[in-house]
Every structure is written in C-alpha cells, then in structure tokens.
Design goal:
alpha+beta; Immunoglobulin-like; about 150 residues; 3 helices; 5-stranded antiparallel β-sheet; about 45% strand
Length: about 150
C-alpha cells in the first residue's frame, strides 16, 4: 500500500464519514424532495455543513425563488447547467447508520420526472467535524419515490 492509502484508511476510523441521500415523497399537499445525511462510520458526527445543488426547474416555483442560481459546467453535455444552491447545516449529533433529514423542499414533479429520463443529477458536498470534504452526485433516476398519500 502507498503512504497516502494507509493515511486514508487510518483517518477513516478517526473521523465521521457522511454521505447524502435523497428521496421523493408524494404527500397529500405535494411532492417533496427529502435530503438526508447518513453517517457511514463508527464515529458520531457532531457538526455537519455543506450544500446541495439542485437543477433549476426541479424545485416548486415558490421555493426556487429563495435560493441563488449557480452555473456549473457539465462534462456530459458540454453545456452550462444552472442549479439552485441550498446550504445544509446540522449541529446535532448524527449517530452511525442513522439517517437524519437535513431539508425537505417541494418539487415540480413533472420537471422531476423529465429530469429522471434525461440523466439530470444533484451534486452535493459535506464537511463533518475535522474530516475532509466529501462530495458526490446523485442521478434523479436513482432517487426513490415513496407514496405517502394513503392512510
């Protein structure tokens, strides 16, 4: 093993390993994108901050106005792709293997469904305690949709 690989393995046990998971819930009053943090390490995460970039058009019109638009360059399409940037903050401990909901935003489900078929992604990054920044992408087609309208 190389030195950087050994240091990487050693630091995993010292710092929390946070990832972001997404779900869409169909509820009586609309469809909501739920962003959750999941601690995949054995260490408790005391503080988590970060951001999620949601493609424009996915959020409900009323909610989209509250967030700044940033432009990202997409390697797939070689076009500039506008996204809404939403900050994530959690100052309560996140226990190992226990997802914690960071935010819930109403979505335009027709636009979400179109994004699922065209390969659109959400991008995220998180910082937890003294751990290095983690980032990733989640394709809309990989986000599960749950129907919560029945009783």
């Amino acid at each position: 093993m190389n030195d950087y690989e050994i240091r990487d393995v050693m630091s995993r046990s010292q710092h929390p390993l946070i990832s972001v998971e997404c779900e869409v819930h169909r509820e009586i009053n609309g469809k909501f994108l739920k962003i959750k943090a999941l601690n995949r390490s054995r260490r408790v995460a005391e503080y988590v901050v970060g951001s999620v970039l949601i493609p424009t058009g996915i959020l409900d019109e009323n909610q989209a106005q509250a967030y700044p638009v940033v432009t990202l360059h997409s390697d797939v399409t070689s076009m500039d792709v506008p996204h809404h940037e939403i900050k994530l903050k959690n100052f309560e401990p996140i226990l190992p293997d226990l997802p914690v909901e960071l935010l819930s935003r109403k979505v335009d489900f027709a636009a979400f469904a179109e994004g699922r078929s065209t390969g659109v992604t959400l991008r995220w990054q998180v910082h937890a305690d003294a751990a290095l920044k983690r980032s990733g992408e989640t394709a809309l087609r990989d986000i599960p949709v749950y129907d919560k309208t029945f009783k």
